[in-house]
Amino acid sequence: MILCGCTQQKSQGEKYLDLDLTRDQEDRLHRLRVRIETAFDSHCIDHQEALKALWYAAFPGSQLTGLISSQWKDMGWQGNDPSTDFRGGGFLSLENLLFFSKRFPKTFQQLLCKKGGRRATWEYPFAVAGVNITFMLIQMLDLRSGKPRSWPAFRFLSFLTEEEMAFDLLYCVAFKVMDTLWLAMHASYMEFNVVMEATRLQLEHELTLESVNRIEDMPSYSLL
Questions:
Q1: Among 22, 63, 134, 184, which has the highest number of CB atoms less than 10 A from its own CB?
Q2: How is 193-207 classified by DSSP, letter by letter?
Q3: How far apart are CA 89 and CA 134, in angstroms?
Q4: At what angle do helices 90-103 and 126-140 cross, to 10 degrees?
Q5: How far apart are CA 179 and CA 129, in angstroms?
C-alpha cells in the first residue's frame, strides 16, 4: 500500500493550540472518531454490501464476480482482496469513497478513469489513493488526538459542528486537489508522497482563510 509517511508529522513551523471545545463540538468529534475507529470487517454483512455498492458505483455496467476477485484491480486496489488495503483508513475510507461516488458522480468517474489532463505512464491507483487520503486527513486534523491542536484542525471542527458530513465533503475536495496537483506537477507513481504533502498544505491553507466558514466555501470546492 502507498503510505504517505509525510502525513504523520506536523507541518513545519506549525504551532500547537490549546482551545476549549463546546459540548456540540465534542459530540460531533466523538461521532466522527467512532467512525474513524471502525475497522473494515470482511465478515460483516454491512461492510460487504458497502464494498459491493462501491463496485457498482464505479462500474455500473459490470457484474462483480466476488468480493475476492481480480476485478478489484481495475478500481486500483493492490490485489484480489480489497479488504487488505483498508488498514490505513478503516471502514471510514470505504464510506468516503461511497460518499464521493454519490455526491459527485461525474468527478468520481473522471478520477477513477483518469480522464482529463496529460496522464503519467505510471498513474496512482485510484482506490488505494483514496484510502491514503482518508488517512492523511485524519492525521492533518488531529482526529486521533484529545482535541484539535492546530488552527486548520480547529477550523474544521467548527465546520463539523454545522455539517456532520464535513469530513466526507473535505475528502472529496482533497481527492480532487490531489489529482489536480498530480497533473500540474507532471507526477508519476514515485512522486505520490510529494503530491500528498502539497495537497495537505493546500488544504491547510484554505481551511484557515477568513472567507471560509464551511467546506463549500473553500476555493478548491469549485473544482468538484
A1: 134
A2: HHHHHHHHHHHHHHH
A3: 6
A4: 110
A5: 10
Q: What is the pLDDT of residues 50-88, one digit of tens each?
A: 999 999 999 998 999 999 999 999 999 999 999 999 887
- pLDDT, tens digit (0-9, with 9 covering 90-100), for 152-172: 999 999 999 999 999 999 999
Percent pLDDT > 90 in the chain is 78
- Look at residue 119 and give its three-state secondary structure: coil
DSSP run (H or E) holding 66 = none
Spatial distance between the Cα atoms of 98 and 171, rounded to a whole number of angstroms: 11
- Could you tell me which residues come within 8 angstroms of residue 9 by beta carbon, excluding any fewer than 6 positions away? none
Q: Are 128 and 1 in contact (CB under 8 A)?
A: yes
Around Cβ 88, how many Cβ atoms within 10 Å?
19
Q: What nine digits make up the cell of 157?
A: 471542527
Q: What is the DSSP secondary structure assignment for residue 104, as one 8-state letter?
A: S
pTM, whole model, 2 decimals?
0.90
Q: How far is residue 43's CA from residue 31's CA, in Å, rounded to a whole number?
A: 23
Q: Cα separation of 195 and 91, whole Å? A: 24
